Structure formats: structure tokens, C-alpha cells
Amino acid sequence: MPDSSILVVHKLFKSFGNAKRPLTVIEDLSFSLQRGECYGLLGPNGAGKTTTLRLCLGLTAPDSGSISLVGLSMPFDARKARTRIGVVPQGDNLDPDFTVEENLLVYGRYFGMPHSAIRARVPWLLDFANLRAKRHARIGELSGGMKRRLTLARALVNDPDLIFMDEPTTGLDPQARHMIWERLKSLLASGKTILLTTHFMDEAERLCDRLAVIDHGKLIAEGAPRQLIAEHIESQVVEVYGDNAASWAKSAGLGTAERIEYSGETAFCYTNDAAPILAGLAGVDGVRYLHRPANLEDVFLKLTGREMRD
User: Fold this and answer.
1) Beta bridge partners of 42
2) Which residues contact 54 (CB under 8 A, 6 or more apart)?
3) Which whole-number Å values give the CA distances from 235 to 106, 211, 245, 289, in the listed order?
4) Strand intervals (E) in 198-285
5) Domain of residue 273, residue span
6) ∠77-83-88 over CA atoms, to 5°?
7) Do residues 179 and 283 share a domain?
8) How confident is the model at residue 1, as a pLDDT?
9) Tens digits of per-residue pLDDT, 231-248?
10) How far is it, in rounded angstroms, from Cα 132 to Cα 125?
11) What confidence tens digit (pLDDT) does each residue in 121-156 have?
12) What pLDDT shows up at residue 46?
């Protein structure tokens, strides 16, 4: 494994079910994380993200392929590897019977840390999570944002080399999301490595150095956010919506946009030159429109489709 790689996933296959009716969840999946980067794992529901995380953490064994985590083979050396990683699960699993401080102290014991070492680290963790004033509060007294910050701080008890974060800002209000983002940026600035799964494309675009899009267990795109936007999508988007949006798009719009996608009453006009589209919309009754640069969400929807996934 190269010295700069902290996680290497190579040709993973994983299926569930029986031999007669196997369900392939991960198929020929390969990627690697470099030390000090934030790597995003994106995909619609059912794409295989959770299974990939479980494989990387040694909680599930692959049918074939290999995983090297902090230089250790998974799942064979999972117990040893977990002492060097942190995990922020999708849902908060804090102990409601303990205070904020006690949650950190008890969690540190799982890593076999001396009590004095845990005690010495707790003040920094409380400051990191901006929870020093709540150190003696029970979990039920915390807001959703506070609980999320505590879960993040708890994942840092053992000073991990790599932190797995499964949708860390789901359910948070904008202020709490921005605070979590700032905390994650500070971790990256200090040299930590993050593997992030998220459904927020703006979050991935803001935080990730590189990312992978997976669907049906396969890697379908990988690269830096701006690189993926440049490679997979037109540079500009005009969103046209209103009662007459569809009829306009199917007549005038088709002649001026390189590509048009529809979602509900909105026509998404993709183009590298928006001027003809904007000129054609001037004075049209029954439509409104928004002109913006293409973003990662446009790439994601193009690669994985707009249909709902359960």
C-alpha cells in the first residue's frame, strides 16, 4: 500500500441472499483515500453506500476483493484497525442515562485508554463541540445540533487517523450544518482524513477533495467536484417553471438548449451558452426562470436519474 493511502478498497464484491437468488450489492468496487483528504461517497438510496462502509469497518466480510485500512487487512485485523479510526453514525446513539461528559468518558474506555488520558482529552473535545457549558447536561436536554456535535466529538476520543462520517448533518438546521462544516474543516486542516457519505450535494462540493458516485454497487464516476462538473455536465442551467414551462420547453426550448430534463413542472435547460435561452424567455407569459451555473447535484441527477429510490 502506498504510504499516502490510508484506505484502499480493491475489486470488492458482496452479495446477499442464497445461491439460487443472490442479490449483488457491491460489484467490482475500487477506490482509495489519501491521508489528509476528505473523500465523499455519494449515491442514491440502495446504491450500496452503507454496505461499503460496513465492509471498510470490518463489520461485514466481502465475497471477494481486499480492503486495507490504516495498513491493516480487513476484516481480519478489524479489532486493531478500529483503535485508529473514528465513526460518526447516521443516527445519534448517545447514551441517554449519561451526561455529555460521561458519554465521552465511557466511550474512551472502549479503546482501552487510561482514565487519566481520557480525562485529559475531554476538555478539548468539549471545546471542539462547543459544549463545555453543557458538560453536565443529560442527552435529553440537548438540541439536535448539540447531539450531532457531541457524536462528532465522541468519534475523536481516541485521536483517530481516519474518521468515517455517515450523513453527519442530516436533520440539522442551516446554522447547525454550517457549524458542523467548520468543525470538519478544522479536522482536515489538522491533518485528519475523512470518508464522508451525504445526500447534500452542496456539502460534498464544499468539503470533499475528491468523491465517488456509486449506483447499484458500482463506481460510475470519481474525481474532484469541479472536475466531475466539467466532465459530465454543461456549464450553465436555466430552470424554467410555471404553467407554460413544459409547452415552452418542447417548442422554443428544444432549439436553444443542448439538453432538457423535466421534473414536475420544471424544465431544466442545460447549455454552454444561456444567452439564446434567456432571450427566448423574455416576455413569455406563464413562466418563471432561474439562470445558474451547473453544480454537483446536476451531475448526480444525470448519472443516477431523477426517479425516486426507496
Assistant:
1) 213
2) 60
3) 50, 19, 21, 17
4) 210-215, 218-223, 236-241, 259-263, 266-271
5) 234-293
6) 110
7) no
8) 40
9) 999 999 999 998 888 888
10) 9
11) 999 999 999 999 999 999 999 999 999 999 999 999
12) 86
Sheet strands (E) in 108-243: 162-166, 193-197, 210-215, 218-223, 236-241
**Residue, of 29 and 90, whose pLDDT is higher:** 29
Q: Does residue 145 sit within a domain? A: yes
The Cα–Cα gap between 62 and 98 comes to 36
The answer, yes or no, to whether residue 44 has pLDDT greater than 80, is yes
Q: How far is CA 296 from the centre of its chain?
A: 13
CA-CA distance, 162 to 181, in Å (whole number)? 17
Determine, yes or no, domain membership for 26. Answer: yes
The number of distinct structural domains making up the chain is: 2
Evaluate whether residue 304 is within a structural domain: no
Give this prediction's pTM: 0.91
| pLDDT in the model for residue 264 | 86
Q: Which three-class secondary structure state does DSSP give residue 191?
A: coil
Burial class (CB in 10 A: 0-12, 13-18, 19+), 213: buried
- pLDDT, one tens digit per residue, over 277-300 is 999 898 888 899 999 999 999 999
Q: Are residues 238 and 116 in the same domain?
A: no
For residue 254, give the CATH number of its domain. Answer: 3.30.70
User: In angstroms, rounded to a whole number, what is the distance separating the alpha carbons of residues 161 and 87?
Assistant: 11
User: Is 303 part of a structural domain of the chain?
Assistant: no
At 2, the pLDDT band (50, 70, 90 cuts) reads very low
State the Cα–Cα distance between residues 92 and 257, nearest whole angstrom.
45
Residue 113 per-residue DSSP state = -
Q: Which helix (H) or strand (E) holds 104?
A: helix 100-109
Place of cell 485508554: 113
Amino acid at 87: V
